[in-house]
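Notebook, bench 3.
Goal today: get a predicted structure for DNA ligase (ATP) from Rhizobium anhuiense so we can plan the truncation constructs. The sequence was checked against the plasmid map this morning, with no discrepancies at the termini. Length recorded as 346 residues. Pasting the sequence as submitted so the record is complete.
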Amino acid sequence: MKDRPRSKPLLADDRPLKGWVRKPRDPSQPNLPFDPMPERVEPCLALLKQKPPSGPQWLYEIKFDGYRLAIHVDHGRVRAVTRGGHDWTDRFPAIVAAARKLDVATAILDGEAVVLDEEGRPDFGALQQSLGGRGGRLPSDAIFYAFDLLYFDGHDISGMELSSRRHLLESLVHGDDRTIRLSETIDGSGAQIFEAACRHGLEGIIAKDRDSPYRSGRTGDWLKVKCVASDSFMIVGYERSPAARGQIGSLILAAYKKGVLVHVGSVGTGFKQKQTSELRSLLDRLVTKKPPVSIEGRRPDVVWVEPVLIAEIEYRAFTHDGKLRHASYKGLREVQDNAAVFKIED
């Protein structure tokens, strides 16, 4: 049996696309010739694995470090919907403007909004700053990497296999648009691609079953392998330092264990000047006398804050006593982006 090509599987020949599974029609519109366009599709999420899978059924892509978005195009009207279902259209004006120019009447594109650093790598902190900080509404220089197509020209194509959905996506997203770009598949073995991604300072890779339909949740159709761990933790305080930016020496972090916040260490690196000033302003509004978590030893320089702000933290591992190793601050996440505070398993 010949191995199927890994990239652009349907562009090299004239085989017909497999048919899609249609949803029941809206009874109030019995003569509607197209599938109703959904207001929102619960996203397919990648399941975390320690090693990349191998085999001809897997497509490999770079894992992007940004905000997951679904771009809805409906006859010139465009919406940008977050993973949690919130409308962030006004936060991504450049992406919305580019989506209006796509050569399609109706479509839903799944992808990631990112800002690239000087070396062309996704930079979550830069993305947050481009959005004007927490809750900002400033113009953004973010770009959108599209990696799936769920609805196309009046048809629900989520039931088609991934390779066919990508074929249609590639016909829609062209290289001449620098704001909406195609997330390219990469040829090679999963292990080699993962090693290369880590060597180039990327967050990791995503492996996707080429024959899978689009299914919401963590079904195992998509797998993620990270070069370094990155998760969301609650900020419960900070240690003052006159020599540090914004006088924040480090942030005190917590995660959930059996529904209760527990201390998981601190982070004192990764801050940028503008980030730190804005962060200090937010923290000062949340100061409380009661510690949200119990902490070992006396900490006279700690300022406790109400557990409201969620930080994205990059780290290598947990120590034997449950603290983060080599932690680095990446930026604040928002509940609207479906940010979930890390839960410690028993």
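The chain has five helices and 18 strands. The chain has two domains: 47-226, 229-337.
Flagging this for group meeting.
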